[in-house]
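tmp note - Putative sialin
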Amino acid sequence: MISRWIPESERSFNASFILAGYGVGAFISFITSGVLCASDFLGGWPSVFYVGGLSGFFWCILCYLFIYERPKDHPTITSTELKFISDHLGIIEQKQIKKIPWKSLLTSVPFWSLALGYFGQFWILGFYCTVQTLYMGTILNLDSITNGEMSSVPPLARGLFACLCGYPADLALKKGYVSKAFIRKGATVIRGEGGSSLRKTASVALNHRSCTWSLRKGRENEIN
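out:
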């Protein structure tokens, strides 16, 4: 879909902007989850599942109503917009759909390298999202709202970092400094290693701040 809507010279930024939704979505989820858990709305913590499920349902409806696979199929696109997209995309070949080469795919070393890399990245991301909040709640004894606010910082940083990297990649590709393959491989490495390092740094900083906050709070309680 991206190849049919976005010119190649702007594709890196727009793709990174779209993928930044992972981080921004996690940021919003942590913030709202902390507030909902601290409230009496629909029983407190169960409301996180109700609100999250309904939000996903309505988001799917919006995507169904407003997202189209091809520009020419969009009912509100103007002729000027359609001409701009067509002129900058160039000719897209309509190739005949072929059978998936499962044997070549399952015996491909690059495929398994990428698959294992993404599996490790998202497994660690899921583990972090669960354990980080659990640590702040049970060990540091932070309340739900503060826990949600502090847990939301690393994914927000991830989303912002993704957006900042997209424009320089488009510019370097447009100027001919690097090849398309270099951009894609470099972005994969930076997204994996850089994102992991960023999350670790943010987690350490937040935990240090949380520990200081908890010690200060405990000291105040002892004095009082």
